[in-house]
Amino acid sequence: MILKKVVIAGTIRADNGLPMGIKMLMEDRSAIDAVEETIKMVEDNTDDWTVGSGGLPNLLGEVELDASIMDGRTLKAGAVAGIKGYKNPISVARKIMEETPHVLLVGEGAEQFAQVMGCEKADLLTENTRDLHRDFLEGKGIIEKSYDTEETMKTKERYFKSFQRMVKDSNLMEWYDRYVHSNHGTVNILAKDSNGDICCGVSTSGLSFKFPGRAGDSPIIGAGNYADNRYGAAACVGVGELVMRLALARIAVYELSKGATAEEAAINAIKSMVDLAPDKGSVSILVMDKEGNVVAACNWKDYYYWLATSENPTPEKKDCIFVDLELLEKDGVGYHR
Questions:
Q1: Residue 19 lies in a domain
Q2: What is the DSSP letter of 320?
Q3: Separation of alpha carbons 183 and 176, rounded Å
Q4: What is the rounded distance in angstroms from the CA atom of residue 309 to the CA atom of residue 234?
Q5: Which residues contact 51 (CB under 8 A, 6 or more apart)?
Q6: In degrees to the nearest 10, what's the CA dihedral of 209, 108, 46, 282?
Q7: Half-sphere exposure of 337 toward its Cβ, with a 13 Å CA cutoff?
Q8: Residues assigned a catalytic role
Q9: If you ran DSSP here, which 8-state letter would residue 312 be given?
């Protein structure tokens, strides 16, 4: 019997995994279990080109994955960065949290650990993303393949239009600096179980066509995610470099610790980005308080997240609160000022 309200929320790429997550929570499974399994379903979805198998590669054509998970009851956490060849980095991160005294393993070390722990290996570069990478580097433009669908063609068109806009008349460094502000993808999951325990998890293939070895905020505890049963949890998606410089998830949870509502914490976290002006980029933060109230805020319009609860187990699409940083910048309103 569910004694307390159970909640699970995720960013826009989480919709295919949330039904499993809320089902597990309603069966009295732990928030950690629900977060891991929900994210695994997203990682295994090859139609999603930003997480796990099928993730778009770095500039060398290799898929490097980042992930992290945090237990709000114990404040223990585990994370991996730049791991290759393993299909579920969120599971490797959980094993680091539960089986080692460490928090973060990177690159070859993370892969060696995953091998010792018996994690499942996989060829992460799918035919679709391999061809997309090659066609981009060769300047071929949008090419329809025999395996393409209407949806994959739409995705290709979106990526190539972005690539063409960023690359034209720019050298590589100028292109990368501009490209990093508008091309990213991550799945964030926050959950609260029937015991009142909170967990958050993040998984991503990172910035598409990134420099090899680049890690964003997703594996950085306090930046990409943070969970504390006493106050709540938060997780971010967007330009990881901005999120890391502010430790954005920790800002939101700190706001909760001072008595802010989930809405206030989310909005204040986004407002803190004004302190980085004139540097710009898009970021969204998903926040859950200790009671299971969930809100998301972002600095661009028409973004959303998914929410499922024991009262309403069918995942519902919810609008993010838009915070206009352009107006705030004129007023000098920020977190540290």
A1: yes
A2: P
A3: 10
A4: 17
A5: 13, 42, 43, 45, 185, 186, 187, 203, 204, 205
A6: -40
A7: 13
A8: 186
A9: S
- Nearest CA-CA partner of 335 in 267, 288, 260: 267
- How many residues does this entry show for the chain? 337
Q: What pLDDT was estimated at residue 50?
A: 62
Amino acid present at 285: I
Residue 159 has, within 13 A of its CA and on its CB side, a CA count of: 25
Q: What is the mean pLDDT of residues 252-265?
A: 98
The answer to the question of residue 49 being in a domain is yes
Q: In 209-288, where does DSSP find H-type helix? A: 240-246, 248-257, 262-271
Q: What is the 3-state secondary structure (H, E, C) of 164-228?
A: HHHHCCCCHHHHHHHHCCCCCCCEEEEEECCCCCEEEEEEECCCCCCCCCCCCCCCCECCCEEEE
Give the pLDDT confidence score for residue 151 in this predicted structure: 77
Identify the CATH number of the domain in which residue 57 sits.
3.60.20.30
Please give the order of strands across the beta sheet that includes 304-309: 104-106, 77-83, 65-71, 198-204, 187-192, 7-11, 304-309, 316-319
Report the pLDDT value the prediction gives residue 124, as an integer from 0 to 100: 60
Q: Yes or no: say if 264 and 252 are a contact pair by the CB < 8 Å rule.
A: no
Token pair in block for residue 124: 């992460």
Question: What is the extent of the structural domain holding 288?
Answer: 7-121+182-331
